[in-house]
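[09:14] KT: can someone run the structure on this one? pasting the chain below
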Amino acid sequence: MSAEQIPYVAFLRAVNVGRRKVEMARLRAELDGLGLGPARTYIASGNAFFATAGKDRAKLRAEIEQRLEQAFGFAIPTALYTLAEVEEAYAAAPFGAKPPEAHERFSLLFTTGPLDPQVLPQAGKRGDWEVVGLHGATAYLHYRVVDGKGPANPVPLLEKAFGVQGTGRFHHTVEKIIASARKG
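[09:31] RB: done, structure tokens below
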């Protein structure tokens, strides 16, 4: 009897930004090559879906990161969640059902490890972003346009503060990622 396949979502950090090009077909092929196929992707910002059984998550993440660095020539930090964990993090978001105003955005920061609430509060000096909650390895960010300027990227600062690596996805995009992952 084979072990139950667990659906995963891999969130790749900083792909298809600048010279960090990752073609989604090649990404799927690399994941398939690790025995994680058939892998699927959603949009070109680095969201991949696959199922596997009986693998230690830390080892699996290390295998994925090593394979992708070899394939693409640069490190690709990967936040690895089960689909159930992504659904839970989405459901726990403190944003409520109200859509953001025109000057604001809601985002989930998916990270590589648990987040210590004692590191809070975390916020931009201009009031352009703040962490409004935590759930396991996920932080919830509220972005604002201040004086006509969009928010600075808080991810490097938050990675340092929490001692993890992470990548953000807008709240409405996470809903679409979940729907796409469920189709598999």
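[09:33] KT: thanks! The radius of gyration is 17 Å.
[09:34] RB: yep, looked fine to me
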